[in-house]
Amino acid sequence: MLLEQLKKTVKRYGLIKKKDRIVVGVSGGPDSVALLYLLNSLQKELRLGLHIAHLDHMLRADSDKDAAYVRALAEKLDIPATFGRVDVKVLAKKGSEEEVARNARLDFLFQVAARVKADSIALGHNLDDQAETVLMRVLRGAGLYGLRAISPKRNIRGRQVIRPLIETRRSQIEAFLKKKKIKPRRDASNSKDIYFRNKIRNDLLPYLEKGYSRNIKAILANMAESVGSDYDYLLQASLRAWGKKQARIGLKKLSRLHPAIKRIIFREIISKLKGDTRRIGFRHIKEIEDLILNRPLNSVVDLPGSISVTKGKNTLSFRSVFP
Q1: In angstroms, rounded to a whole number, what is the distance separating the alpha carbons of residues 84 and 246?
Q2: Are 307 and 270 in contact (CB under 8 A)?
Q3: DSSP per residue, 147-160
Q4: Cα–chain center distance at 106
Q5: Is the torsion defined by CA of 196, 202, 208, 213 positive or negative?
Q6: Where residue 276 falls among pLDDT bands split at 50, 70, 90?
């Protein structure tokens, strides 16, 4: 039973406590609709306070119908809801459509969570999404940080983002909706190889399932969990080594640290200054290492997101540089 599976995931990762206020991101698609119904069924038992958040990206001509569907769903379940609209195509002039849509959605969810004083934000990512993300990261050359893929629980901007369906297969979600006679909205673009994720979903994963392992999705999801656990251990060791959490660190101290610890410290400093580490790849980390080992004093490395790294006589300094 899907509800029991969700309860196990919630208990295993400590995703939800009694009396939690939770903002549920609901697009109208199968995953988020199933998540909403499941959390709603736990409302009385755990005395949860649910609040629906729906953002219309205006990417499809019928996207307003998604909002109408979610509005009707909110009324049916008697759950308060907040709706927003953003023209991603206009904003995408500043970046890729996928990244702009993701950032707009996160901004909206965090604004809603802050307004309703929510403890966490629940998203409908499932085991299939996890497998797709791991493959995407492998093909892009990610390290441990990237191969963690989608965490069941992650602190972002000081608030918990939880994914109670992360151990649930997409087929289980579809079966649940069919049994309950719930008809979610369907995004036709998911079946087209427009985006990188769609190519992974529609072409590569079926190919791997057929030719290599029928259990490839679970294998990839297990890999993400294992890598995530290892990374968390290294992160704690890195935070201890970083010490005062300043945006500068002694070169002598760095020389005594294992490369894995040093690289995590670099990423943590960048994240502290920039707010995230998006667009910071392995080549940028290698450039910082080259700065330390081979370049003269006062040399500077400029990173994406207006971050500069300077090699001083005794320290390596990071700072934000705003044009």
Answers
A1: 38
A2: yes
A3: HT-S-SEEEETTEE
A4: 9
A5: positive
A6: confident
Name every residue whose Cβ is closer than 8 Å to that of residue 290 and which is 6 or more positions away in sequence.
none
d(CA 228, CA 232): 6
H or E element, residue 63: helix 63-77
Tokens of 223: 């890999």
Structure tokens at 222: 């297990």
Beta bridge partners of 275: none
Q: What is the pLDDT of residues 91-138, one digit of tens each?
A: 766 567 777 788 889 999 999 999 999 999 999 999 999 999 999 999
* Structural domains of the chain in order of their starting residue, each with its CATH number: 2-211 (3.40.50.620), 243-320 (3.30.465.60)
First to last CA, the chain: 54
Cα(297)–Cα(264) distance, integer angstroms: 23
Query: Which position has the token pair 């990423």?
Result: 267
- The pLDDT score that the predictor gives to residue 55 is 95
Element (H, E) at 46: helix 43-46
Residue 195 has pLDDT above 80, yes or no: no
Sign of the torsion angle spanned by Cα atoms 9, 15, 19, 23: negative
State pTM to two decimals.
0.88
